[in-house]
Amino acid sequence: MRKESRLLIKEIEDNFNSSVGDGSKRKIIENALKVFSKKGLAATRISDIALQAGFSQGFIYNHFKSKDDIFIEIVRLASSGGEYAVKQADKLNLCAADKIFCLTEAMLSEDSLSMEHFRLILLQATTGEAIPEQAIRIAKESAPKPIQALMKIIQEGQVQGDIINDDPIILAIAYFSFIQGLVITKLQTRNKELFPDAEMVLRFMRKKPADESI
Amino acid sequence: MRKESRLLIKEIEDNFNSSVGDGSKRKIIENALKVFSKKGLAATRISDIALQAGFSQGFIYNHFKSKDDIFIEIVRLASSGGEYAVKQADKLNLCAADKIFCLTEAMLSEDSLSMEHFRLILLQATTGEAIPEQAIRIAKESAPKPIQALMKIIQEGQVQGDIINDDPIILAIAYFSFIQGLVITKLQTRNKELFPDAEMVLRFMRKKPADESI
DNA sequence: GTCTATATACCGATAGAC
DNA sequence: GTCTATCGGTATATAGAC
Fold it and tell me: Which residues from chain A sit within 8 angstroms of residue B41, using beta carbons?
């Protein structure tokens, strides 16, 4: 993995850590994130979260009004995370194609745990119907932002001649769909060897397969 | 869309229709499929299914032992569907790359409704934890089958010189991940114009971008 | 600040009517 | 074959103890 990718991962995790607050509330959110991403909103019990966080069931209600309330808070966090990752990638001192390469390595990395959970939460928030109205609204409103940010990098890459001259929006949508699917697959199989790398992923938008030495 | 893709869609839908049985039980399954794929197992109420199917709540229990029982039945149907689609694509009288092209068009088509729902159900069955043990087992056991079937076509394409000489398993995994992600994106946005086509999707495994006229 | 105990409501499943 | 009524279990959220 490139050193810039590692930097990116660290920045993403740091951003998560600083967004999530402190004290008991932080503990609740961190653990709720894990449980929600595994079981989904409807199937997780407040007692699951409490147990995982090391508190009693009733204690959760000192910090949150309801289960939905916790979920909405997490969706809010997750919604800002995606855009942040792309923006940080854009700040790297690399050509556009390499910025996207590092973003991809970061997003597919085993170490981007918060990223992985976030994508699952947003998945639930946008595909499910048994989700608080407010969570759906937040997720839908923020969905275009990472796409917009990536579009900008893609256009830069098209000018530089590394990226295919298709509609940048469609390329960006294809990109995040691919990443989404890969994260899900990784979660399902937990097989680290038989897994596509960033090089393969980016081939669908690269003009020349660059140099086929992997 | 190619005519072979339309044929494929028809075969997939027919296969679904003939697998699902008849009478009231069929009505329950068809409607449970819709509700489950939207809300997830935990969040759907038996009454949701009953309402959607036009029956009373208690009537469901004349045909199924429990809510889990319905879900397991659907997972069973979904599990056979994916492999069937790939096998049918393989029977098309085309070169390997074109078989995969048609498979892709079929899977991304608006008309492959059963396919879309199936993927969502399998997604739940493999990523969720609050899922009946039997459903997880069925889903996990069947997961490698479409991959195996696609691998065979990919290898054929590599011999024919149309597909990149990467590990066929990894290419197949990447392919289904991509499709999975795209189906989810399509469901989230419902925007038919700004959407990648089969040509773009397949670029990551094509040796030559063939002829770049789209 | 944290836990225990409880009320309130809801849902899955059953039993029995038509 | 289909529906209505109901029981029992379980989870959320509250209230009050320590």
Answer: 43
